[in-house]
From TrEMBL:
InterPro entries: Thioredoxin-like_sf. It comes from the Bacteria. This is Thioredoxin domain-containing protein.
Length: 140
C-alpha cells in the first residue's frame, strides 16, 4: 500500500525530459530499472559524469531501462549540456520529488529498482562503488 501511495504521489508531479517531453516514472517500475540522481552543484568526483555514460551503456546492454534525473538544478540547460545526450532520458525534477520518494540520502547516486519500483540497491557518490555495482549486476 505504501508503494502505491508513493507512486500515486509521483504521478501527480509532472516530470518532463530536458527537451520538454512528458516523463512517466511508472514506466520504469514495470521491470528492473536504473535511476541515476544527479545535479551539477553537489560536490562530486569529476569522474562521475563520464561514469553515467558507462552506467547507461552497461545496464542498457544488460536489459535494464533507465533514466538520468537532474534534480533541484537551477540551471537545467547547462547541467544537461554537461551530461550530454544519452540513450536514457534526462529527466528534470526541479523540486527533488524522486530523490525524496526513492529515499536517496546522498547524491550523485545510482539506484537499481526492482519490478514495482522498490529500491533494490544503491551505489555512489564514490565512482568505485558504481563500478562494483556494474560488475555485479550489469551483465548482458
Amino acid at each position: 500500500m505504501r508503494v502505491l501511495l508513493a507512486f500515486s504521489l509521483l504521478a501527480a508531479e509532472a516530470l518532463v525530459t530536458v527537451d520538454g517531453k512528458p516523463f512517466f516514472f511508472e514506466n520504469l517500475t514495470e521491470n528492473r530499472s536504473v535511476v541515476v540522481l544527479w545535479n551539477s552543484w553537489v560536490p562530486q568526483d569529476p569522474q562521475f559524469v563520464a561514469l553515467i555514460r558507462e552506467v547507461e551503456r552497461r545496464f542498457g546492454a544488460a536489459g535494464f531501462a533507465g533514466a538520468v534525473v537532474i534534480f533541484q538544478e537551477p540551471e537545467v540547460e547547462r547541467a544537461a549540456a554537461t551530461l550530454g545526450p544519452g540513450p536514457w532520458p534526462r529527466v528534470v525534477d526541479r523540486r527533488g520529488v524522486l530523490l525524496r520518494k526513492l529515499g536517496a540520502s546522498r547524491a550523485p547516486v545510482v539506484l537499481v529498482l526492482a519490478p514495482g519500483g522498490e529500491v533494490q540497491t544503491t551505489a555512489g557518490p564514490d565512482p568505485a562503488s558504481v563500478r562494483k555495482l556494474m560488475e555485479t549486476l550489469a551483465r548482458p
